[in-house]
Amino acid sequence: MTDHWDRFYSSVDLPHLAELSPFARFCGAMLVDSGPGILVDVACGNGRDAVFFAELGWEVVALDACEPAVAICKRSAADRGVSLTAHCCDAAGAGEHYRRAAVIYCRWGLHAVSAAQAAGWIHRWGEIGIGGMVAVEARAADPGGGDRESWADGHYRRLIDPLGLRAAFERMGFAPVHLEIGRGLSPIDGDDPRLVRIIVRKL
User: Fold this and answer.
1) Which regions of the chain are under pLDDT 50?
2) pLDDT at 14
3) Which pLDDT does position 17 carry in this prediction?
4) What's the structural domain count of the chain?
5) Quick check: 138 and 172 in contact, CB under 8 A?
6) Contact yes or no for 51/78 (Cβ under 8 A)
7) Sign of the alpha-carbon dihedral angle for 199, 64, 52, 104
8) Distance (Å) of CA 95 to CA 86, 104, 128, 129, 143
9) Is 139:153 a contact under the CB 8 Å cutoff?
């Protein structure tokens, strides 16, 4: 699945990639009482949100399995004069970062991996300390539809059952702080996908 994103970040320079995501702006306000501390940005892409959180004073650790994306993230941070750490790695193998984090942030990463991989990520996110927060935005399945897999524009995409996602977090000892499902949350390039936004706290 990383081949598509390697090609994408190696060859594409779209204007929206430089714009702060609506979810990052939302979380910047929602998570203000949790930091600043260590924030782990999982599936950071080009780092636009990671840089934003670093500018807010968070100690950012940015993770992505795509090496070209991580390189862009590092360059963007240097260009903006902020400090962050960025690693090319499998998010399931980053437990040492999750255990130290105040916040784990994942925008549009969870729907880009298989259900088994996503379950592995959530399991590792459960290693965050008591009071730690996890914030996720992902493409959502239609009501009652359950998870649904597809391929779109040459890459894998999984539409996530929002209530199943909430239940997965609850099984790992998290309690929901915010749950929002619908359209209008993060339109992109004329597309207004149905999304789930969930923020949970470790009990």
Assistant:
1) 5, 14-16, 151
2) 46
3) 52
4) 1
5) no
6) no
7) positive
8) 15, 11, 9, 12, 33
9) no
